[in-house]
Structure formats: C-alpha cells, structure tokens
Automatic annotation (TrEMBL):
This is TetR family transcriptional regulator. Keywords: DNA-binding, Transcription, Transcription regulation. GO terms for molecular function: DNA-binding transcription factor activity; transcription cis-regulatory region binding. Residues 39-58 bind DNA. The keyword GTP-binding does not apply. The keyword Transmembrane helix does not apply. InterPro entries: Homeodomain-like_sf, HTH-type_TetR-like_transc_reg, HTH_TetR. Pfam families: TetR_N (PF00440). Gene3D superfamilies: Tetracycline Repressor, domain 2 (1.10.357.10). Residues 16-76 form the HTH tetR-type domain. It comes from Mycolicibacterium sphagni.
Length: 207
C-alpha cells in the first residue's frame, strides 16, 4: 500500500472513531438532560474532543442529536433480522425479547426520542423530525413482519396490530424507567408478544 493511501485510510479511521466518540457522549448527555440540556460544550467535555472537532462532523447541536437518533435506530433494526427458520409465534416472541434487550442496552435512544416527541415548539428541531421518521420506518418494518407472521389478517388489522405493538412497547419502556429493577422488562415483553399473537389469531378466526 502506498504511503499516501495508508495516510488517507488512517485519517478516515481516526475520523470515524472521533465521530463515534462524539455520538456516544451526545447520546449519554441527551438521554440524561434532554434536548435543551445538551450543548456542544458539554459533549466536548464528555468525549474529550474540542468543539471544533464536533463542528467538523456536525453542523450544530440539532444536527448532532438527529445523528444520535439515526445511528441508534440502525442498531435497533437488527431486532428484526432473525433466522429464516423461525416462523409464526416463535419469530414474534424473538422480536419481543430482542426489543426488550435493545431497550435495556440503549435506553437513551428512546428516552430522548420520547422527550422530543412530546414537546411542542413553534419550530420543530430536526432531531424530533428524525425520531418521527425512524419510528415510521419501525412501524413499516413491523407491519411487514406481521404480514409474514400471520397470514389471513386484513391490511387494516395489520396496521392496527402494529400500532398497538408500538404503543405497548412505549408503555413498557416508561414503566421500566419509573419502576426500575422492580420491572422485569423481558418478562413484560414476552407477555406483550404473546398478547399480540393471541389477538392476531382471534382476528384471523373472526375473518
């Protein structure tokens, strides 16, 4: 490898590492303090990089937090990437348990996103728009999964189930945030998954 090419690759790797450090710090701070309580200065102090480095990667705080949400969601999509040999109820239960574990591994993503979603401002930040957008993507992914899992549901029933699934997941996350160790999130999501399956089967029977 030519020296010039090696230096280019090294700079790119260093840039990716710096960006990841910035995003990690911003995720932690925003999850604790919310959108308003997050600042470039606080992120700089947390990650140990100068503000100029942060501004090199991100236009402003809003751009940074939008990137936090987008990156976190990319990790969450892995919940739906299950082995093809899992079908029906088993696949749904794996998704439910995977979602619970994703909540526990990366709670800051949903905590921040829900805070942004519940706020109302004359000018909405791009970070809120990003959260709404990635939730729509999650809803569509869940809708496709339900179509595959429970053949026989109508389009309206699939969308209704998906909306119920997302709303229930939000509620369970909030219950965990409030209840702490007293809430077994995996067990709650197993119940949630079983309830979704039972409702789907009832709907199919009624059809």
């Amino acid at each position: 490898m030519a020296p010039k090419e090696a230096k280019t690759r090294q700079r790119r790797a260093d840039g990716e590492m710096s960006r990841a450090r910035i995003l990690d710090a911003a995720t932690e701070i925003a999850g604790e303090r919310g959108y308003e309580g997050t600042s470039i200065g606080a992120v700089s102090a947390k990650c140990g990089l100068p503000a100029s480095s942060i501004y090199w990667h991100f236009k402003d705080k809003d751009d940074l937090i939008a990137a936090v949400i987008e990156r976190s969601f990319a990790h969450w999509l892995k919940v739906w990437q299950l082995p093809e040999d899992l079908t029906g109820r088993d696949r749904l239960m794996e998704v439910a348990v995977g979602t619970a574990k994703a909540f526990m591994d990366s709670p800051d993503f949903l905590r921040l996103g829900l805070m942004l979603a519940l706020e109302r401002r004359p000018v909405e930040p791009r970070a809120r728009a990003m959260f709404v957008q990635v939730r729509e993507q999650a809803f569509e992914a869940l809708t496709r999964s339900l179509v595959d899992l429970a053949a026989g549901l109508t389009g309206d029933q699939v969308r209704q189930l998906a909306a119920y699934a997302v709303a229930g997941a939000d509620g369970l996350f909030i219950a965990k945030e409030i209840g702490g160790d007293s809430v077994d999130l995996v067990a709650m999501f197993e119940m949630h998954g079983q309830a979704l399956w039972d409702i789907a089967q009832r709907m199919i029977g009624e059809n």
